[in-house]
Automatic annotation (TrEMBL):
Record bears the keyword Disulfide bond: no
GO biological process: glycoside metabolic process
Name of the protein in its database record: LmbE family N-acetylglucosaminyl deacetylase
Gene3D superfamilies the record matches: LmbE-like
Gene Ontology molecular function: hydrolase activity, acting on carbon-nitrogen (but not peptide) bonds, in linear amides
Length: 286
């Protein structure tokens, strides 16, 4: 076992404990979440399911509109995949449509930006244009995006663009308010060891731990009664959860972060005091 993997193993109990503590302090929004329409933005096909499957299912079951926008083409695993680039893009789109169907979202309510997987930080203008158009078409009450300190460059880019757009909308007279909610994906692999914004040494990170655990209060959506269906939707992403091109992109240990009693949503902007770079993060490099 190398030093890095030893550190990862040692960190797991602290990560589990901190998450449990954080969830205990959260606000249960299960009842309210169902009645609001939403645009769910996924940097990659599967993020919407990992972070928000039950949230989406509860909304759809209550008759609330949900649109899913997948920003990238999902073709990053091209080098190891047994398919050509266009085949892989088509396959991942098909998986996303299947998943959306299982979530109760109609095929016409899933759209694909087709931007290069892994390259969203370099294409912020195009990401902004995509989100702007979807928001204008949809006029959702809520906008769900990855958390600002998620640590994946594509996720962080989408999150920042969404925050800017919502802030801009708030300054325009006559525009109905859009509630920005942030869902963690990769954050679970480094939380609560996430660096403060701007980076920091180990001592500063340790000193900042109490603040990270005490703020903010997350919103919680109960997965009770929906967990088996969420498992089924996750399983629809065969290229991600089954061996594909020799490796499994999303390990069972990683998937376990999303199959607990709650889905966790953060009030928009509430994690902006934390950094968004991977740094020496404790999780997967995917
Ligand atoms: Zn992603």
């Amino acid at each position: 076992m190398g030093l890095a993997s030893a550190a990862r193993r040692a960190a797991v109990p602290a990560q589990r404990g901190s998450r449990a503590l954080w969830e205990r302090r959260g606000t249960d929004r299960t009842a309210q979440i169902a009645s609001t329409s939403a645009l769910v933005v996924a940097p990659h096909a599967d993020d919407e399911t990992l972070g928000c499957a039950v949230t989406i299912m509860r909304k759809r079951a209550a008759g609330s509109r949900v649109r899913v926008l997948v920003v990238s083409d999902g073709a990053y695993s091209l080098d190891t995949a047994p398919h050509t680039h266009p085949e892989l893009v088509a396959l991942r789109e098909q998986e996303a449509r299947t998943a959306a169907g299982l979530l109760g979202v109609a095929a016409e309510d899933v759209s694909f930006g087709g931007l290069p997987d892994g390259g969203l930080a370099q294409r912020r203008d195009e990401v902004r244009a995509l989100l702007e158009r979807a928001l204008a078409e949809e006029r959702p009450e809520q906008l769900l995006v990855p958390v600002s300190c998620d640590g994946h460059p594509d996720h962080d880019a989408v999150s920042r663009v969404a925050a800017e757009l919502v802030a801009d909308l708030a300054t325009q007279p006559g525009e109905p308010p859009v509630e920005l909610l942030e869902y963690p994906v990769w954050m679970w692999t480094h939380w609560p060891f996430t660096s403060p914004a701007g980076g920091a040494g180990p001592a500063q990170r340790a000193l900042g731990l109490p603040r990270r655990l005490s703020s903010p209060r997350p919103y919680l959506v109960s997965t009770a009664g929906h967990l088996e269906q969420k498992r089924a939707v996750v399983a629809a992403y065969k290229t991600q959860v089954e061996p594909y091109g020799g490796e499994v992109a999303l390990s069972p240990a990683f998937l376990a972060h999303f199959l607990g009693p709650w889905e966790v949503l953060l009030p928009g902007g509430s994690m902006s005091h934390l950094g968004s770079h991977l740094g020496d993060h404790l999780g997967s490099s995917a």
